[in-house]
Amino acid sequence: MTDQNQTPEGTEAEAMPDTAAAESPDGRISPEARIQALEAELAQIRDQHLRALADMENLRRRAQREVEDAGKYAVTKFARDVLAVSDNLERAAQAVPPEKRGGDPLVDQLAQGVDMTLSSFRQTLETHGIRRVDPLGERFDSKLHQAMMEVEDRTKPAGTVVQVLQTGYVIADRLLRPAMVAVSRGGPKEGAPAPETPGSRVDTSA
């Protein structure tokens, strides 16, 4: 008679965990299994180490970029405050244009002093990485210019800066203040061929 409580042959071995298969008869883990476990742990540690190195490099670059930006743009707020001084000096220099000088020696000396002060002031700004944006005659650029009005001027391509109402400034590679300008309208499109005049066409059919 067959014992109903008897376990079929092989059932116990199939139910045994995989780790047990790697154990030696006395219950210890085999060297091969131990090596595989250590290799897996080493690979994990190596991956964590590489990730940590990448994070440290990114942090170093970010800190370096912040230091460089701090050096470039540290005077941004101060620069904006002193632009009004530059504007006033420009207005004072324009108050006595060169064609109106030569009549009064005192006025001439005063105008010359304003010109020298304005020139020195501009050089000081450039020393600190602050450059003027004076786009007269250039194509309008919304990144650097602010259009205040349009002027009918058919001698210029549409969108050309025909008047600078207020000089703009950039600090390093950032816009500090846009140039306020007037742009032309109604002229020929940039790159379009100029209208022909009688006799201007050369006949090449001969």
UniProtKB/TrEMBL annotation:
Predominant place of localization: cytoplasm
Record-linked CDD domains: GrpE
Alphabetical list of InterPro entries matching this protein: GrpE, GrpE_CC, GrpE_head
Record's GO cellular component terms: cytoplasm
NCBIfam families: PRK14140.1 (NF010738), PRK14141.1 (NF010739)
The protein's assembly and partners: Homodimer.
This protein's name: Protein GrpE
Lineage of the species this protein comes from: Bacteria, Pseudomonadati, Pseudomonadota, Alphaproteobacteria, Geminicoccales
Gene for this chain: grpE
